[in-house]
Write a structure and sequence with these properties.
The protein is α+β, with helices and mostly antiparallel strands. It contains 13 helices and 13 strands. It folds into 2 domains: 358 residues, 3-Layer(aba) Sandwich (Aminopeptidase); 111 residues, Alpha-Beta Plaits, CATH 3.30.70. Strand 1 and strand 2 form a beta hairpin. It is globular. Bound molecules: zinc ion. The site of zinc ion has 4 residues, from loops. Zinc ion binds next to loops.
Length: 485
């Protein structure tokens, strides 16, 4: 699109983000080095909220009972537009940037091998650009910036929605790293219920008097068998997978307590919940057989992720204006080497943005932002800070996350996000139309939280891991502080 067709407001945010490219890179790199997994994003949130506060945002920390969640607000009145993203790393994902081979920065440590560090940098940069444009051009409306912890545990955002944080929001935007600059509409991801079952029995000496024991681990095993037998009768779209989180302590003590953590998934919220209900019956059966008792904690329960067509069209207009970064030969060579290592087609980095796609092809994974997307019209922006085809949560997915590929992709992503959000502030018709098409898209489905009304956030994940690795990670923290003008 010729530069003359770009509005003054859009030109303003593009220029601001180009001028602040070094700060965007520095912010993403700093979070990469913090390498904080879900619920431990302490330094990450301190840095993000510090920058937002310094630039005039009012920050509420610890929303919905999550110490590493936040809401940063700027402006007032209608419309109310939200941005939200995640910033957690993963266990065992320590990987150096800029090389096409596995190289842990700290052996065994957590790290970013997908790119949520860049998600955070893009959202903060876009928020600052929008704020500056609102000031410069006297644009009204409220911008709400949500920091969502522990996406990898599919955790926080259903709590935000249940607790009313989106009741006054008119439209919402989510940015996520990918191998291309793209958006889409329709249903993108599936629903999930994350629930931990705990069985309670009685200890006994497993040699001397096993008949005196009531074995909680037996109940976990029988529940596992019960769900396995049930698989034949599940809808083909359903998924159930688990980890035994407490399997007893030592063989000669019959365990009085044992736990298994399940994810139940389906493209529909009702389907995921129906599978969970069946699992509760299986747990009851396992308890009867073993003379144990049981309880269940729903850690989280998320709706599928969907994206609204009107907002997708708005984002796509900006994507087409921005285009993908100009990749260097060195960046293309590194990308191809990583694709080779990941056993993916060696196509290098995309040199064009993807045209608007929809209805989207659903991927059989979940994201905790699902509830937001049924509550309010929502957009998903994918930005090109990772290499197409690499494996996430694997070293190939972490090898460019503090490299010029991530940095350049982040500037493109921040531009697309800032310009699209700004469009909704400037043109009230976009929000009105988005709300109409949102209602049409939902049809006769009425959103109600899957999360139990009294469920408290399960905290404490990754605590022991970080107690071990934080002192080592601290030695690797960035020495520079990102400075946005
Ligand atoms: Zn992710």
């Amino acid at each position: 699109m010729p530069a003359s067709n770009v509005s003054a407001e859009t030109r303003f945010v593009f220029d601001y983000l180009d001028r602040n490219a070094a700060a965007i890179a520095s912010l993403g790199d700093a979070i990469f080095r913090f390498a904080e997994p879900g619920l431990q994003e302490i330094e990450t949130v301190k840095l993000m909220t510090g920058i937002l506060e310094e630039h005039g945002f009012a920050v509420e920390r610890g929303i919905s009972g999550f110490p590493t969640a936040f809401l940063a607000t700027y402006g007032s009145g209608d419309p109310v537009i939200a941005m939200h993203t995640e910033y957690d790393a993963n266990p065992e994902n320590s990987q150096a940037s800029g090389i096409a081979e596995k190289q842990e920065i700290i052996p065994g440590a957590p790290g970013h091998c997908e790119g949520h560090n860049v998600n955070a940098a893009v959202m903060v940069a876009a928020a600052l650009a929008i704020k500056k444009a609102k000031d410069q051009f006297g644009i009204g409306g409220t911008l709400k910036v949500f920091g969502a912890p522990a996406e990898e545990l599919v955790l926080a955002r259903p709590y935000f929605v249940r607790d009313g944080y989106f009741d006054d929001v008119d439209a919402a935007f989510h940015d996520h790293i990918w191998g291309e600059l793209a958006t889409e509409y329709g249903q993108i991801q599936i629903a999930a219920v994350s629930a931990e079952f705990t069985f309670h029995g009685e200890t006994a000496h497993a040699g001397l008097a096993p008949w005196r024991g009531r074995d909680a681990l037996d109940a976990v095993v029988l529940m596992d068998m019960g769900v396995a037998q049930y698989r034949e009768h599940m809808e083909p779209t359903m998924r159930a997978h688990r980890a035994i989180t407490n399997g007893g302590t030592q063989p000669n003590v019959i365990p009085a307590e044992a736990s298994v953590w399940w994810y139940f998934r389906d493209p529909s919220a009702d389907g995921a919940y129906a599978l969970f209900e069946q699992a509760k019956k299986i747990a009851e059966g396992a308890a009867l057989m073993t003379k144990t008792t049981w309880d269940v904690t729903v850690k989280s329960a998320v709706w599928p992720v969907r994206a609204n067509r009107t907002l997708a069209e708005t984002v796509q207009r900006n994507i087409d204006m921005i285009g993908v970064p100009d990749w260097s030969d060195e960046e293309q060579t590194l990308a191809k080497a990583l694709q080779k290592a990941a056993d993916a087609p060696e196509i290098g980095l995309h040199t064009e943005a993807r045209p608007l796609t929809g209805p989207a092809e659903m991927i059989m994974a979940s994201n905790d932002c699902g509830d937001i997307t049924w509550k309010v019209p929502s957009a998903r922006l994918w930005f090109p800070s990772n290499v197409p085809g690499v494996s996430y949560h694997h070293w190939t997915g972490g090898a460019v996350l503090a490299h010029s590929i991530a940095h350049k992709g982040a500037v493109a992503g921040a531009k697309a996000l800032a310009a699209s959000v700004l469009d909704t502030f400037i043109d009230p018709e976009i929000v009105e139309r988005a709300q109409d098409t949102h209602a049409e898209e939902l049809g006769d489905i009425t959103y109600k939280p899957l999360l139990p009304a009294d469920q408290q956030p399960p905290l404490g994940a990754n605590e022991e891991l970080m107690a071990r690795f934080r002192p080592l990670l601290e030695e690797q923290y960035s020495k520079e502080t990102p400075v946005f003008e």
